[in-house]
Every structure is written in C-alpha cells, then in structure tokens.
Amino acid sequence: MDKTAIVTGSSRGIGFAIARQLGGEGYAIVMAAAGSREKNQKSIDELENLGICCVYVQADIGSHEDRLRIVDAAVNRFGRIDVLVNNAGVAPRQRTDLLEMTEESFDRVMNINTKGNMFLTQAAAKQMIRQEASGGRKGVIINVSSCSAVVSSVSRGEYCVSKAGVSMLTKLYADRLAGEGILVHEVRPGIIATDMTSGVGDKYDKMIADGVFPIARWGRPEDVAGVVSALCSDKFLYTTGDYIDVDGGFHMKRL
After folding, report:
1. Is the per-residue pLDDT at 40 higher than 80?
2. How confident is the model at residue 58 (pLDDT cuts 50, 70, 90)?
3. Dihedrals φ, ψ of 192, to 5°?
4. What integer best gives the mean pLDDT of the chain?
5. N or C: which end of the chain has fewer CB within 10 A?
6. How far apart are the first and last CA of the chain?
7. What are phi and psi of 49, to 5 degrees?
8. For residue 196, what pLDDT band results from cuts at 50, 70 and 90?
C-alpha cells in the first residue's frame, strides 16, 4: 500500500526538507504552498529528479476552500492520507512592540498559523478515520510549532500566541484521535536557518557565539526533517500528544 504525506509550506525551508526526507522514504508527497507552481517549479523539479512522486497544490492555509482542496488533491490522486505535516506558518511582517501590535497583524498570523492548522487537521483527520489502518494506525499528524510556543518575544507576540495555540491543538487532537488510531505529535524548532530567520541573522549569530545554545550552531531544516521522519516511522506507536524540541538544547535551564 502506497503512503501519502501532505506537507504544508513545503516549497522551501523546513517544509521542503521534510517533503524531501519523507519522499525519499517512499511517501508520495502533496506539496502545499502559497506561491504559484511556476514560482516553485525548481522545488518541484528537485523532488521529481529524486524519483519522488509529488502533486503541487497552491493554497492559502487560512482559506477554508483551499484547505479542502489540499485534502481532495491527496485523496483524488493517491486514495488516502497517511501523514499530515502542518508546517506552513508566517511571522509578523514587521516586528513591533507588544503595545503597538495591530489587530490586523494578530489576525493574519493567527489565521494562518493556528486557525489554518486547526481546520486542515480537522479535514485530514476525517479522511484518515475513513481509511483502512496501515502499519498499526490510520494516520500520523505532526505540527511544526516553535520554541516560541513557550519562549516570550515581546516584539512578535502574535507569533508566540499562535504557536502556543498549536501546542494546545496538538494535545486536543491527540486526545480526540487516539481512539481512532491516529497519532498526533509536535515538533518545536529553535533557531533554524531559513528565510524567516535571515533578517535577524546577526542577533542569532551573537547568541550562538555567546553560548546561549548548548549545541553552538544554527539549526538546519534537515535537523527538523529527521525528527519528523522518526515520528512518522513505526517506532512511536505508543506515543501521542508529546513534543520534541529541535533547538540545540536551548530549552534547558542552566546555571
């Protein structure tokens, strides 16, 4: 039985690394990203040149209709959804003091990062429930949140709130879906070298040099993809509702 994985935000960065990792392990990939196919053709070509079967869906995760199109694309082409990786997310367009944050910025970030996650998971879970079990389960859902789920950044409060919401969604869906044979996990990346962090590279370079991170380097998208791969394997069949930090040890309290 072929395996299918939906990976949102998979045209670049962490999402692309996850799509490439899972595709290399035999999954057919549904790539979902906000940009046009033409804009992301290079990423599509790279997967296909590796022999990975993939379908590209241009979609806004904040849109109800687009979320349903992603699920429909997976089912219509491959017949099932074995894995959903909720990776798509945005940062505020501008870092702003908490007392100056606008409602428009808050709504935009929450709509994509949290609401989009909530309702794409809902749609995919309903499909998974209808499926025949494979490998001891009907599906795996992995939420890519952030260390910002528990770390305060007062210049981007809307992002922190949105990722804290994703952490609770992980627990809620893990609770609701365990009896349906669906496992739900959360991955919390730290400082990963992507487009999202490129604008504040000097800040994080200094933090790394100052020893803030026990593993003193930038994280790579592949570091996150490796953890997602492990959670999609058959090695975590008695685990759900938990999270793994992929942050170089940043989460540890140290004296």
Report:
1. yes
2. very high
3. -110, 140
4. 96
5. C
6. 51
7. -65, -20
8. confident
∠ CA 155-156-158, rounded to 5°: 140
Instruction: Name the catalytic one among 27, 56, 159, 173.
Output: 159
What is the distance between the alpha carbons of residues 250 and 218, in angstroms, rounded to a whole number? 11
For residue 131 the two structure tokens come to 């499926």
How far apart are the C-alpha atoms of 28 and 31, rounded to whole Å?
10
- Structure-block tokens of residue 208: 């790394």
Rounded Cα gap, residues 231 and 15, in angstroms: 15
Could you tell me the pLDDT band of residue 199, with boundaries at 50, 70 and 90? confident
Q: How does DSSP classify residue 112?
A: I
Please tell me the distance from the alpha carbon of residue 231 to that of residue 225, in angstroms, as a whole number.
10
Helices (H) and strands (E) counted in the chain, each on its own, are: 9, 7
**Looking at the chain, which runs of residues are DSSP E strands?**
3-8, 27-33, 54-58, 83-86, 139-144, 182-189, 243-246
Chain segment 137-193, per-residue pLDDT in tens = 999 999 999 999 999 999 999 999 999 999 999 999 999 999 999 999 999 999 999
Both structure tokens of 137: 């389960």
3-class secondary structure, 97: coil
Predicted TM-score (pTM) of this structure? 0.96
Closest CA to 219 of 184, 251, 194, 254: 194
Is 238 part of the annotated catalytic residue set? no
* Confidence at residue 255, expressed as pLDDT on a 0 to 100 scale: 85
Q: Which two tokens stand for residue 5?
A: 């994985």
Residue 217 identity (one-letter amino acid):
R
- Indicate the burial class of 234 (C-beta count within 10 angstroms; 0-12, 13-18, 19 or more): exposed
Strands 182-189 and 243-246: parallel
